[in-house]
Amino acid sequence: xxxxxxxxxxxxxxxxxxxxxxxxxxxxxxxxxxxxxxxxxxxxxxxxxxxxxxxxxxxxxxxxxxxxxxxxxxxxxxxxxxxxxxxxxxxxxxxxxxxxxxxxxxxxxxxxxxxxxxxxxxxxxxxxxxxxxxxxxxxxxxxxxxxxxxxxxxxxxxxxxxxxxxxxxxxxxxxxxxxxxxxxxxxxxxxxxxxxxxxxxxxxxxxxxxxxxxxxxxxxxxxxxxxxxxxxxxxxxxxxxxxxxxxxxxxxxxxxxxxxxxxxxxxxxxxxxxxxxxxxxxxxxxxxxxxxxxxxxxxxxxxxxxxxxxxxxxxxxxxxxxxxxxxxxxxxxxxxxxxxxxxxxxx
Length: 347
Description:
Layout: H1 2-23, E1 44-49, H2 58-69, E2 76-80, H3 87-99, E3 104-107, H4 116-124, E4 128-132, E5 142-146, H5 149-163, E6 170-175, H6 186-197, E7 201-207, H7 213-226, E8 232-235, H8 238-250, E9 259-264, H9 267-274, E10 280-286, H10 288-305, E11 319-322, E12 324-327, H11 332-339
Parallel strand pairs: 1-2, 1-3, 3-4, 4-5, 5-11, 6-7, 6-8, 8-9, 9-10
Antiparallel strand pairs: 10-12
Helix pairs in contact: 2-10, 3-4, 5-6, 7-8
């Protein structure tokens, strides 16, 4: 797994760049002009705007955020918003948060282009924007994500080691919305490893309308009627994988004849592995708890100091990427503990 060493070094360099970028070109501010807040005394308002609160990973986001904010329970307010996968609603929510005096916004961008203007305007208005996993084109305070290309590449590598790179396998990828394809590279990483190192055949790479479990279920049902020779299904994120699994189970093909591999790891997929699913072989676990904890810590820094991309004079968005860990039934118990998902949520 040589690529992991190479990418790990790259990630270290990216994190160093993020730190350097956050301190470069920062205008000198006198003590009289600064407005650094004491978060244990001074109140701040934070907003969390995912693409939808229906996603399975939102529960772990809530756990991580609450753990980080526990010490500031009396002074820091965190409000949750649900745009229901609607881009225009998300844009309006960002604008409303700016008008209502929020100090920082955590956001999953439903569309990287449509959110460019509202996020740029928020930063200019003194509201720091921290994009989570799904980025936008506007220069903003921070983008934090799990690695995407490496996640897909690792998934294909694990499957090739388990089932044979020289075997003749037919593969289906259940992918992100087409509008997100340029910034979500899980499927690209999977396909690159597959095409360069195996004899497998890609039957279809299906983009779905949303990152939702329901849409993935519908897409997988259609694919199962279209092909009768599917060997491997790769789901590029957790809700998509769970939806594909539901369709495979409903079709009575969860007997091991189709092998599913996912990415991220929530209670549904982790629970399926722990329960001994014959369909779900494994997934690449993103350490979502750590990712969201780091995001909240830096968001509190921006809220307390009033720093944004504009005040820092940034010409590029600082980016932090966290690595992934392959999970199979052999190491599932240890990985589930590391994931921080409440074990009561598992099967």
